[in-house]
Amino acid sequence: xxxxxPVITIDGPSGSGKGTIASRLAKLLGFTLLDSGALYxxxxxxxxxxxxxxxxxxxxxxxxxxxxxxGFGQPNVDSPWVEGSVWLGSDDVSLAIRTDEAxxxxxxxxxxxxxxxxxxQRQRDFLGANGLVADGRDMGTTxxxxxxxxxxxxxxxxxxxxxxxxxxxxxxxxxxxxxLLSELEERDARDTQRSASPLKPAVDxxxxxxxxxxxxxxxxxxxxxxxEKLDR
Length: 232
Ligand code: DC
Fold this sequence. Notes:
alpha/beta; 5-stranded parallel β-sheet; 3-stranded antiparallel β-sheet; 9 helices; globular; binds 2'-deoxycytidine-5'-monophosphate; P-loop_NTPase; EC 2.7.4.25; Cytidylate_kin; kinase; nucleotide-binding
């Protein structure tokens, strides 16, 4: 029997604030949270640890995607990027998956169609009895095409770089704004130009441009939409 628990998808580019929004929304509604980017990040790290270079055979990396043990738990470390802990087997990789190298590995493994196919059911398995908020790039287009509410959250690349800059500086971490800007531009290009599940809004997604909005304003708009669509 198919699972009829409600799903809300939040897709968008890096730094759009979708991670924060998805996590707050899941808490507010009592839904499970799926941080799908973390799955690709753990897989990238696992491939690296197994000595699989980025150019390795796609099927070998897809086989790893099928067997790798990925876990989520309570926050375990103090970091601006970490809302909960992420595990590779018995290893807490919450910080290791957020490095620049791990981001690059994640985006490389994410471009392999067989890897995306291998992770598809794993992502769908996050939907339990409560309902799910799914954060990623292709949640509304591919993984949960029947979601009750699909949001595509975006913002100008300048606004996204500026937010990340302030977040880092606020935590006492050195950051260079032009470098953050060009990193974001590179990631946008990789995520939107790949052939397998590129980043794009689902046809039935509500597009929210948060360039001139605060997190609270975005939350208010999405909460209203969720109430309307979920009838609660
Ligand atoms: O959201 P994030 O920055 O943690 O994502 C890490 C990488 O994984 C990024 O390059 C985009 C990719 N990704 C993806 O291809 N599909 C998803 N559903 C989520 C992330």
